[in-house]
Amino acid sequence: MAVNQVSFDVRRGEFFSILGPSGAGKTSVLRMLAGFEDPDEGDVLIDGQSMLGVPPNRRPVNLVFQSYALFPHLTVFENVAFGLKMRRVPTPHIEEQVRQALTMVKLLGKEARLPAQLSGGEQQRVALARALVNKPAVVLLDEPLAALDQQLRQEMQVELKSIQEQAGLTCVCVTHHQEEAMMMSDRIAVMHQGRMWQIGPPRELYERPCNLFVSRFLGVSNELPGRVTGNLGEESLFQPADGEQPPLLVRSIPGEQRGRSATLSLRPEQLRMARERLPTSAQVLPGRIEKVLFAGSETKYLVRVGHDRLWEVRMTSGAHVLPFAPEEPVFLHWSLSDGRLFFE
Amino acid sequence: MRRGSTGLNVVSLLAMLFLYGPIIVLVLYSFNAAHLSMAWRGATLKWYAALMHDEALLAATANSLLIAVVSTIGATGLGGLIALGMERMPHRRQQIIEGALVLPLVIPEVMMGVALMLLFVMLNMPLGLTTVILGHIVFNIPLVTIMLRTRLRKLDPALAEAAADLGASSWQVFRYVTLPLLRPALWGAILVAFTVSLDDFLVTFFTAGPGATTLPLKVYSMIKSGVTPEINALSALLLVISMTCVALSLHLQHREVSVSPRLQRMGVFFFCMLGLAGALSACGPAFTGDSAESRPVLHYFTWSDYVGPEIIQEFERREQVQVVIDTFSSNEELLAKLQSGATGYDVAVPSDFMVAIMIQQGLLSELDQQELPNASLLEPHLQALHFDPERRYSVPYLWGTVGIGYDSAVIPNAPDSWSILWDPRFKGRISMLNDQREVFGAVLRSMGQSMNSTDAQVIEAAKEQLLRQKPLVKTYTSDHYDQLLASGEVVLAHGWGGPMARAMAERPSIRYVVPKEGATLWADCLVVLRTAPQKRLAMRFINFLMEPEVAARTSERLRFASASQGAREQVSASTRDNPAIYPPVDQLDRLEWMRDVGRAIRLYDRAWTELKMQ
């Protein structure tokens, strides 16, 4: 089953992303919205209207295909005008609206080209213009930027977002690219194995993921398995499974957790790395630098923690007078409020 | 490395030469000024000009075009629907249908032709243009479907979805997206179907009836009277048309984007004009508004080029009728056509022995002697032939002998015996007919036996003689020995008088002799078929052909003797005195009719096969 009991609302003017690894069922959801597939149960409502049994050509939605699906035999103008022509919009109106749409995607002057004569980015814009020229209630985007190279992709992220805001479009976007989803979306639904695990604004998902999957999928999750061994009121004691470590302090979660297995998760930027143990912090793990990856403004360190765990630490390049080198023993510190426990 | 690739180049060049050599020769010789010989006598376009004035050919062209256009439209329509329909089927069923589609392409075409013919006969459909068109649609459907499916499978399914998503109904999706993208393949398929239909021989052969002779059928029957440069010209034209179509088709199939609308309009226009032209001339006066919309039509089934077009026109004018001519190339073909249930033919021209068989099989209609006054004025020795002594079913039309044509420049002393064909001096310069009864007939007569012998020992002895002769024989041919003689490639040829007379016109040193041991006497006879729709008109037509003056003209043209006694007086002296055309009266007693040898035909069959195999 590709999709299992999924329920969500999209607000008018919102950029809503469905994020998940391939095979999560994202595209099936999108195809149900577009009308290419029917749900076995439940309904799709657009502006309060049930879409059950309404064929794709009668739905007030337009889909931007992952392959763009531009009509290769039609010019840019004819591609964009296609939807208007199908709705029998009078010719002068068609011309004007197509011109507006092409202006919005900065393709004015290329009306007479055939899709094969355009670059990948231009084709993407045509696909977008072809959808939004119809002023649909919802624009559906299927991996809209997946076919573009990295640089173009980042440019288009910004541009797509600004077009969406400028035109007040309601967008539902399917993507497996978490950074893209976070940058463009007002809200994100994380999908996995046919279910939606968490729906919320990007920041909330990143900072307060509801489970390990969401945590891992949105950014890097440095993890340490263990067990809650004691409750000190505001704080609890967490004993890492490695055994050699003394217990760590974590923020208590309501309810009796003592004795339960859990995983501690930390984001790379929440860790501070030092050559010696800071006496003020009880949240500290010793480790050994395994790899130093210089990435310009930032440097990534892979640090071996315990026997078999590699944690990722990110620090601004040049923040230390004496740079860390591989094989150097270090101590990783974090603040009490940053560590998150996920119970099994 | 370099040397290796040179070798490869040479090999592929040779392969290409092997492939295209025959075609190049054919095209080249269509410009040869010489009529019969293979010798080059300068370039000319006259054979192409002659094509334009050959009415029988033009009629065949019209039929071919009409059949090709209509069957292409039919096959493209149906094949297209199948291809589109298959897209929506589950994969398993697609595979089954795909397999079923390939079947007609791989079964032997002969079987396809016979099966179609049987079906039409069973359904009581008279064979004719309609059945040929249906036959062509049948074999073109798989071609079209497979070509379109190849294209359809390459299309991104998202395109149709995108169109639907943008508000297009299923019809609009097809009209504005699928069809335009399919168009190059569609045109490609149309061109291929058109070409295959235009060039088809076998299915056409079996499904054609009266009035449905196509170009390939016509070419085939023309070859019977020799490979003329006209045939070369015609074949060259067909070749050019076919190759253009196929090249265009290949080009279109490789195109990603659609065909330009202008080109497309031109294509549609051209295609329609072809069909219209075909329809107009194939259905002739029925459309041209000629006063006689309901003029009766007479179907004449005869050998290729066996009647002058002006003679037909004269009859059409005189009787206010239309004559449609269809041709066959052998007596066996004529019999097979009629036995398979082809109806609609009125008058046919079988040879003597075939008349006997057709009478036995009840294929002929009794003649009305009242209507045939001219048919009674026959050469004396043709008045009561053994197979139809009272002429109840047949009227002898043209007749002649089988003998030896030789080049008197090489053989100054006129040979008078079959034995000259065993003379080792002429090794490799002798041609024999490719006809078992005639070849055995010649040997049997030379042995002092009847050519209709049924004695196994005699036939065996004759075979031994022929085996002894075989090393001397350049070729066994019934078609182009006149050319071989005229070009000097052979100096002795076994064959019918008429072609020998043609060779004489080309090379005056050619002579003809009927050996003293005796030879075949033959006569082609006019008959009315039992199923003839126009029996009375058929009688008048036979009577007309037997008019002394008409018969004389026919005789001059075809270089065969006419059975009409009056014709002998009217033909030119040069025709009358040419022994290849009019056998001298004093030779008649050494001539013998070919007869049905009954079960002994198996002995001949076996002996002939052995001769050919050795």
Largest sheet of chain B: 11 strands, mixed
Q: Count the beta strands of chain A.
A: 18
What is the average per-residue confidence, as pLDDT of chain B, rounded to a whole number? 86
Instruction: Name the helicity range of chain B.
Output: 55-70%
Distance between the termini of chain A: 25 Å
Low-pLDDT sequence parts of chain B: 285-292
Return the domain count of chain A: 2
Based on CA atoms alone, the radius of gyration of chain A comes out at: 25 Å
Largest interface: A-B, 25 and 20 residues
Q: Fill in the CATH topology of the largest domain in chain A.
A: Rossmann fold
How much helical structure, as a percent, in the residues of chain A?
10-25%
Q: In DSSP terms, counting alpha (H) and pi (I) runs of 4 or more, how many helices of chain A? A: 8
Describe the strand arrangement of the main beta sheet of chain A, using strand numbers. 4-5-6-1-7-8
Dominant shape of chain B = globular
CATH class of the largest domain in chain A: Alpha Beta
- The fraction of residues assigned to DSSP E strands of chain A is 25-35%
CATH architecture of the largest domain in chain A: 3-Layer(aba) Sandwich
Question: CATH homologous superfamily of the largest domain in chain A, by name?
Answer: P-loop containing nucleotide triphosphate hydrolases
> What is the multimeric organization of the chains shown?
heterodimer
Helices of chain B, by number, come to 25
Rg of chain B, alpha carbons:
28 Å
What does this structure look like?
The complex is a heterodimer of chains A (about 350) and B (about 625). Chain A folds into two domains: about 200 residues, P-loop containing nucleotide triphosphate hydrolases (Rossmann fold); about 120 residues, OB fold (Dihydrolipoamide Acetyltransferase, E2P) (Beta Barrel). Helices cover about 25% and strands about 30% of the residues of chain A. Chain A starts with 14 loop residues before the first strand and ends with a strand. A six-stranded mixed sheet of chain A has the order 4-5-6-1-7-8, sandwiched between helices. Chain A has a five-stranded antiparallel sheet with strand order 11-10-9-12-18, with no helix packed on it. Chain A has a five-stranded antiparallel sheet with strand order 13-17-14-15-16, with no helix packed on it. Chain A has about 350 residues and is of the alpha+beta class. Chain A has eight helices and 18 strands. Chain B is an alpha/beta fold. In chain B, about 55% of the residues lie in helices and about 10% in strands. Chain B has 25 helices and eleven strands. In chain B, strands 1, 2, 3, 4, 5, 6, 7, 8, 9, 10 and 11 form an eleven-stranded mixed sheet that branches. About 0% of the residues of chain B have low confidence. Classes of the chains: A alpha+beta (about 350), B alpha/beta (about 625). Chains A and B meet through strand 4 and helix 2 of A and helix 7 and helix 8 of B.
